Amino acid sequence: MALKSPEQYVESLRDGRVTFWDGENIPDITKFPRFRVPIALTAKDYEYDDPELGALRRYKPEEGGDAHRIYQIPRNTEELNKRVELLGHTSIGTAVSSVFTALMSVKDQVSAVNPQYGENIERMYRYCRDNDLRGAEVITDPKGDRKRRAHEQDDPDLYVRVVERRKDGIVVRGAKLHITAASVIHELVVMPTKGMRQDETDYAVSFSIPVNTPGVKIINRNFAPAELNAFDYPASSHHSMPEGFVIFDDVFVPWDRVFLAGEVQLASKLAQSLGLWERTGGVIGAVETSELFVGLAQLVTEMQGKESDAVAQASIAELITYAQMLKMSLDYACRHYEKTESGMVYPNTLAINAAKYYYAANYHQTVKYLHDLSGGLVLTLPGEADLRNPESGKYIRKYLHTKQSVDVEQRMRVYNLIRDLTADAYGGWHFVVALQAGGGLPAQRFMMNRTYDIKAAKEKALRAAGVKV
């Protein structure tokens, strides 16, 4: 096992991968301005000597040595809680490697259908763990006309499919959309987007390949420009990650990297396994964000001298309720964990889906309270350049004054963070991600209906109605 340094991680990205951004084919993403922040963000997760987080990032596998904790398979409550703590201090460029945890959670079910696929999952997990690699969650197909199945589309490539089966592997064609961090990781771990029927065997496919595999092309998009002022953009100036359209243009996949190739009964199991860990990550992030919203709301209220205002206090109470409900839900999900047959511990499925649904369904309403407390300055506050200009700056400091205890520059920083998180490009990204990451609201409804003990609820209702059960 060999842990990489941040410098070695950056060097590993110079591998000939085909990556587009702003209409340009980027020959070396480590030198392209738009990739500076995403690469730096992911590189921090390779700082194993960090005095605060270095120990959290590392764990010792049974085979000995050290590995990144993102690869630790939780076997007890302590290890599960460590994973949750880690995800609260990890870039999304590393967090997406949870896809290997998802695969390991269904390895036994996959092996029951095809033992070779189960061995492939284990081998790829160990390979990426032992070489300190990162893998992207590559799941969402374009889907085309949603009323039609994969094989009924006008273009058969609107779902990733197997176009050729060879003695040494398979050839795949298609695309996956909205793939976070695809250009800054090492392995593209492709999962089925949903369950497949018997007449869709070519579309029931899962595998892992290096990003620089011939035929793979990534087209990037991001909410953030290459350079952002940290005063005016305190969050997005150092927290951005590209989303990629990942194209598979007749890509060859060796059999030892294939996890599924036609076994339709496994497609939904693989898709759902990833959904749980994606939603867990979403809830962890939501807990952090919701607590930040409470702090920002209280700060702007105090800065305006409205600490005793009943309306302000009611709005802050709503923000506290949202934050506390999410925190309690995450705690409940971890304390009431579930376990696979092989002993992997994972958060309670029903609780995580309910928490993710609550987070997503109420996020926009929650932001409304913060905006209402903050007022128009969220959008109209002058920038740092005008503050630093002696002529314009004196007017900004004069007319943003509220009381002696409030520093104008500090007040501006608080408002800038609110705007950056909720009312600018990064804020728009959050609005969509809150709903769609880990599957939209219908996906959580489906899982809640599927996992809730409906039978027990019906029996309880019948007994309450006086019916003998």
How would you describe what is shown here?
With 469 residues, the chain is an alpha+beta fold. Helices cover 47% and strands 14% of the residues. The protein contains 18 helices and 14 strands. Helix 6 (98-105) runs antiparallel to helix 8 and helix 6 (98-105) packs across helix 9 (267-303). The longest helix has 37 residues, at 267-303. The radius of gyration is 24 Å and the shape is globular.
Topology:
Elements: H1 6-12, E1 19-21, E2 24-26, H2 36-43, H3 54-57, E3 58-59, E4 67-68, H4 77-87, H5 92-95, H6 98-105, H7 107-113, H8 115-130, E5 135-138, E6 161-166, E7 169-180, E8 187-190, E9 205-210, E10 216-221, E11 243-254, E12 258-261, H9 267-303, H10 310-335, E13 338-339, E14 345-346, H11 349-374, H12 377-380, H13 384-388, H14 390-399, H15 408-422, H16 425-436, H17 441-451, H18 454-464
Parallel strand pairs: 1-10, 5-8
Antiparallel strand pairs: 1-2, 3-4, 6-7, 7-11, 8-9, 9-12, 10-11, 13-14
- Alpha-beta content class: alpha+beta
Helical element count? 18
CA radius of gyration = 24 Å
| Number of separate strands | 14
The name of the CATH topology of the domain at 269-456 is Butyryl-CoA Dehydrogenase, subunit A, domain 3
Estimated share of beta-strand residues: 5-15%
Low-confidence parts, pLDDT < 50 over ≥5 residues?
Answer: none
* Average pLDDT number: 94
Strand order of the largest sheet: 2-1-10-11-7-6
Instruction: Give a quick account of the main beta sheet: strands, pairing sense, barrel closure.
Output: 6 strands, mixed
